[in-house]
Amino acid sequence: MDRRFDGKVALVTGAATGIGQATAARLAADGATVAVNHRPDQDPAETMQRIAKAEGTCFPMAADMRDPGQVTAMVQDVAGRAGRLDYVVSNAAINPFLKWDETRVEDFDELFETNVRGTWVVAVEAAKQMIREGHGGAICCVSSISAHVGAPYQTAYCGTKGAISMLAKALACNLGEHGIRVNAIEPGWTMTPMSAPMMDDPAVLKYYQERIPLHRGAKPEELAAAIAFMLSADASYVTAATLLVDGGFIVNAEL
């Protein structure tokens, strides 16, 4: 595999499982030194083993994305330990399945603190670090098809993903002059621990399989490939963009 990120340092949030884990493994395989963010109560060993198997380089970085102080310290620690910071993948998120009229204010706050404020803080602090270092960089935020399409049991979650897609565009407008690109990818159904409970319902599984033109969910590695592209020099003129990676689901999602 082309080691196109040799000499670069990447921070991937929410990297203990799912899309984050696959992305950390892909960037490391492509040559980057990867800071593997995980919640303080999570074990990042599986991700680190995948990276070691790919002969990549990484180190763990615990931080709770709900805590701005921890996130700020994490960005500084990554740059201090690795010597620089080139890329950030803001992936950490939660998606509790809640009916709209049973979503408490506390649930709403936790969703927005984790998904939106967490994205905001890590992106802003990373951008400040990249500007101090003076070499530019790239940030990729993981949004969702839910930024465009409402879903039962995910009403507040959809709001967080709409916010993330817009934040990526707005940040890109400000950071271009510093050589920092900011984009978002918007996954559809991806086969991760987060989506697994929903797919336990045969009716839900049938709905997705029938409406997605490719008739399957994405592998996390397919999202990781899209993220790696967005960070790479191949996307050097791509910023303020949102990329749907949904197998074409968007064309049928509201039928």
**Averaged pLDDT, please?**
95
Give a quick account of the main beta sheet: strands, pairing sense, barrel closure.
7 strands, parallel
Structural class: alpha/beta
- Classify the fold: give the CATH topology: Rossmann fold
The span between the termini is 40 Å
Percent range for β-strand residues? 5-15%
Stretches where pLDDT falls below 50 for ≥5 residues?
none
Any idea what the CATH superfamily is called?
Answer: NAD(P)-binding Rossmann-like Domain
Can you offer a commentary on this structure?
The protein has 8 helices and 7 strands; from the N terminus they run βαβαβαβαβαβαααβ. By secondary structure, it is of the alpha/beta class. The protein has one domain (9-191, 219-247): NAD(P)-binding Rossmann-like Domain (Rossmann fold, 3-Layer(aba) Sandwich), CATH 3.40.50.720. The chain has a 7-stranded parallel sheet, with helices on both faces. Helix 1 packs parallel to helix 2, helix 3 runs parallel beside helix 4 and helix 4 (105-133) packs parallel to helix 5.
